[in-house]
Amino acid sequence: MSGPSEAIRVDKELDLSNAGRGVWLVKVPKYMANKWEKAPGNIEVGKLKIFKQSGQKTQVSLTLSDAVINIDPAEEIPRDHRLDVSVVTKQTLGVFSHAVTTTRDDPVPECEKQYMEGRIVQKLECRPYADNCYMKMKLESIRKASQPARQIKSLEKIVHNYKPVSDHKHNIEDRERKKAEGKKSREDKNAVLDMLFNAFEKHQYYNIKDLVKLTRQPISYLKEILKEVCDYNMKNPHKNMWELKKEYRHYKEDDKKEADAAKANSDSDSD
């Protein structure tokens, strides 16, 4: 038993039996195409008239049938149209189709084949005559297009709507907290220096964010003080970190070196 993908056999050869047939390519107005799409497949949609007089261009006209006009009586469209003809000379255009064959006993498609229905020899553009029906239709389309998308409507009852929150409570509180921190009063310079020295006794390097948290001072004011007592590292491994200047450093390793140096001096004096 074959699966669904194996049910259709595709014939890859293009049927060119109608390749020599001439075909017209007709462009119709949108309102006419909409009527034809609504029409059932078993009615007459219109009549085509071709009038050719010696020494003059061929005149082609199209008259829509009553069945098409009455599909939607409220939507009136022009009945009579002219077709402007232009010959295709510098292009090679064709019409193609594909068909799927079935049998009476088995509705499952058996074969899919492609056909060339003909070669386009003329282009025609269907245009309505500027009669009263056409002008009325255009006026109605302009009126609909000019209507605003939103209209003012008076309300007789109270309408309960849940409007979206423009700003959440936690966002407002966070902004107020940051604003309050930005307006903090500056501590005395000596008090800030004491906080900095205490911090640098614990660690040798700090970034500016950590120092702001430790001192709770405005960043611009803190940087002014840091420039007096600290160096800003521009190179790795402590890039973008602050460190006390040499004259302010006082670490355990330095104490050990000073003690060793003092001991060496006392030994030399005793000798």
UniProtKB/TrEMBL annotation:
GO MF term set: DNA binding; translation initiation factor activity
Primary location: nucleus
One GO term (biological process): transcription elongation by RNA polymerase II
Keyword Zinc assigned: no
Keywords in alphabetical order: DNA-binding, Initiation factor, Nucleus, Protein biosynthesis, Transcription, Transcription regulation
Chain intervals for the UniProt region annotation (Disordered): 163-187
Domain annotation TFIIF beta subunit N-terminal: ranges: 21-98
Subcellular location: Nucleus
CDD domains in alphabetical order: TFIIF_beta
Domain of life per record: Eukaryota
Any single Gene Ontology cellular-component annotation: transcription factor TFIIF complex
Family annotation (PANTHER family): GENERAL TRANSCRIPTION FACTOR IIF SUBUNIT 2
Cited function: TFIIF is a general transcription initiation factor that binds to RNA polymerase II and helps to recruit it to the initiation complex in collaboration with TFIIB.
Similarity section: Belongs to the TFIIF beta subunit family.
UniProt-recorded name of the protein: General transcription factor IIF subunit 2
